[in-house]
Amino acid sequence: MHLKDSFNRSINYVRIGVTDRCNLRCFYCMPKEGIPYEPSAQLLSYEEITRLLHVLGNLGFNKVRFTGGEPFLRRDFMTLLEQTHALNQYSDIRITTNGTLMIKHIPKLKEMGITKLNLSLDSLDEKRFKEITRRDDFSKVMNTFDTLLKEGFDLKINAVVMHGVNTDDILPLVNLAEKNPVSVRFIEEMPFNGGYKKNETIFTASDIYNTILDTYPSFEKKSGKHGDTATNYSIKDFKGDVGIIPAFSRTFCNTCNRLRITAKGEIKSCLYDSGVFNIRDFMRSGVTDKQLKEKFFEIVKLKPENGFVAEDNAKKSSSKESMSVIGG
């Protein structure tokens, strides 16, 4: 069984933010001074998250991604991964991380078969990395990168491309895929940070594509599958590949297959909406699993046709949300 939205899209993928906290301060994600963090009692507990995953698993969900903030900042995050693994309902368990805190957990992740990771890395220049993240953790991230590759993890690099900031990093990051079996994915910058200005120039997916094509004429589109946010490309003789995610242009909405749940239980049926329902409060009111299941049927039907519709319907304040609150 798969849930279907009003546009006949199968919804089988949930992204769950386990914390709004992060140890980096990437300027496109949150302000320099950080954000007011939610008290721990306001966050979904691991028991609540596991219950949600069990209900969703019975509705045909088979893919989950844990995000943050930085998920490894939350105490005993590995316990949640163990509980999720023990459900035996998710064939695809993934994590998005900045790579600064997870290296000691790599053996356990490998043991559980949780080997699909997205590593955020916006620059291979140590100075520029520090300018973007406002932290001096480049060596930690690269050590994690090297270790994950050595241990055979299925690794994707997420790089947010910012006009006038790190466009010079596009080709060096592409080169990571030449000798390494990684997927390097370039993401259009989104308007989810306190410093965003309406007239800011966006380095678009087309700009990224043309930058790479100018250097690599063999840059060739690969076939995709339902739910892909990235358009993936191969380059002759490269071990890895390259993807471009039009997160601002929003050209992938017609195959969207996901729901997002923030750390405090707010369900977002689209990255660009302002939240459609708080599932934490609903669960804490004492509802049964059957009532939870029925609620998800309702929520999925609220998914908008695309991100532009969602943005039009959203509250005006939503564009000021931090990506660490939204959960990526």
UniProtKB/TrEMBL annotation:
Residues 6-226 form the Radical SAM core domain. Its EC number is 4.1.99.22. Its cofactor is [4Fe-4S] cluster. GO terms for molecular function: 4 iron, 4 sulfur cluster binding; cyclic pyranopterin monophosphate synthase activity; GTP 3',8'-cyclase activity; GTP binding; metal ion binding. Keywords: 4Fe-4S, GTP-binding, Iron, Iron-sulfur, Lyase, Metal-binding, Molybdenum cofactor biosynthesis, Nucleotide-binding, S-adenosyl-L-methionine. It catalyses: GTP + AH2 + S-adenosyl-L-methionine = (8S)-3',8-cyclo-7,8-dihydroguanosine 5'-triphosphate + 5'-deoxyadenosine + L-methionine + A + H(+). InterPro entries: Aldolase_TIM, Elp3/MiaA/NifB-like_rSAM, MoaA, MoaA-like, MoaA_NifB_PqqE_Fe-S-bd_CS, MoaA_twitch, MoCo_biosynth_MoaA/MoaC, rSAM. This is GTP 3',8-cyclase. It comes from Spongiivirga citrea.
